[in-house]
Design goal:
The protein is an alpha/beta fold. The chain has eleven helices and nine strands. Helix 3 packs across helix 4. The mean pLDDT is about 95. The structure holds phosphoric acid mono(formamide)ester.
Length: about 300
Amino acid sequence: MRFKGKDLLGIEDLDASDIDLVLSTAESLREVSEREIKKVPTLRGKTIINLFYEPSTRTRTSFEIAAKRMSADAVNISVSTSSVVKGETIKDTAKNLEAMKPDCIVIRHSASGVPMMLANYVKCSVVNAGDGAHEHPSQALLDMLTVKEKKGAIAGLKLSIIGDITHSRVARSNIYGFTKLGAQVTVAGPPTMVPPGIEKLGCRATSSMDDAIKDADVIMMLRIQLERQKESFFPSVREYSRLYGLDEAKLNRAKKDVLILHPGPINRGVEVSSEVADGPHSLILDQVTNGVAVRMAIFYLLLGAAKE
Ligand code: CP
């Protein structure tokens, strides 16, 4: 089966069979990272550029590791030392990078829609590594892979996404992805952080933390994104944490086998306590491990034999 299109810009553009294809490909590639020599020749001769206009630890590193495990050449551009600081536009940057004949550009940008703009300027594949509050498709795919690994299937599960829904590209991509695979998604947070009309994406919205956690099979806690908040959305961090932070007392009111996800980076003691983040329900580091497999699968499906 082939992956449609040259780019991966968002989960909204995919259907359930596309998502299943990425997950099953990632499942078969996961063992490469367990080998003594963690490398397959599949993408030998391909060039992948990581172009990150925003900070990243997990996404950038795992895209680079994924490229290298597939034997592609990976180039990281640090925006702070590139000609972007001299005022070069996205279009000029794209055209100049394209002139070096890459096969794929992975881009993260603070403005929603920039990956789509880039995809229209270049012939090579473009992968969205997070654009503003719009989408973070590879994060949602690794989240779905992690839940599928632990629960066997996603259809019929109840997922609650809790926190700053308004500013979260992770929430948006996961709402699209989990609902397409047949899960019931609830979003929860202070009314100022749950955008009106979010239900149109196929989820249920509540401002009650208890309501969100009581029947959930999976709880996804979100980081408070102070860098995207132009005004204060809650009276104090302490009050936010008391009402919407996940600690052991609240976790005791959830299902005994509930899974806890967080995309990272964590604000420990704010949206999640250290006991919960490091406890037996937490899959936070499994998510990071699965991030490499998912990104290998994305490259394979966009650039590899599956495409040809
Ligand atoms: N989850 C995530 O996108 O983390 P980074 O910002 O570290 O890439």
